[in-house]
Design brief:
Blueprint: H1 5-16, H2 22-43, H3 46-61, H4 65-82, H5 86-102, H6 104-112, H7 114-133, H8 136-159, H9 163-166
GO molecular function, one term: DNA binding
Pfam family, one: FCD
Domain GntR C-terminal: 24-149
Length: 168
């Protein structure tokens, strides 16, 4: 599988030149992942679901912030793999790698808050449960809830950070 370097470079450059914003990238990722999870629900194989569950367990049980963040990234990437479309995977990896860099501070803050971490952990568990059913609509609803919770929790955490730190 080719590396998504070109797509990553394009998004990084467009971001630096202010053609697009972080908000545009986040919104695109959310739209994209709502479709990905539906395809993953109907196309996955048992061993892929086992890996998704293992990553979810790692997210939920991780006591190390960086380990939890990496497991979260791999969880969403696993969903893209389960969608069974190489074009989707390449675009996802290119987009997500850029967001991984620019949203790092927000993610760290969210994982340091026990309440935020618990709420986002619950949404990962719900995504796994929905994908298991092979029901596209349930999977989409679980992903909707995940992003709604993520946005609520990270904006709450993010808004409590001194502005000098938030702008890094």
């Amino acid at each position: 599988m080719p590396e998504p370097v070109f797509i990553q470079l394009y998004f990084e450059l467009a971001l630096k030149l202010n053609y697009i914003s972080v908000d545009h990238l986040e919104t695109a990722r959310e739209m994209f992942e709502r479709e990905i999870v539906q395809a993953a629900a109907v196309n996955h194989q048992d061993h892929e679901l086992d890996r998704l569950e293992a990553l979810c367990d790692k997210i939920v049980n991780s006591t190390d912030v960086m380990e939890g963040l990496q497991a979260d990234y791999e969880f969403h990437e696993q969903l893209a793999i389960m969608a069974k479309n190489p074009a989707i995977l390449i675009i996802f990896q290119g987009l997500s790698s850029v967001l991984k860099k620019v949203l790092h501070q927000r993610r760290v803050l969210a994982r340091q808050s026990p309440v935020s971490q618990e709420k986002t952990n619950e949404t990962h568990v719900a995504i796994v449960a929905a994908v298991k059913t092979r029901n596209r609509e349930m999977a989409r609803q679980a992903m909707d809830q995940h992003f709604e919770t993520w946005n609520q929790q990270t904006m709450r955490s993010y808004s409590q950070v001194p502005s000098s730190l938030a702008e890094e």
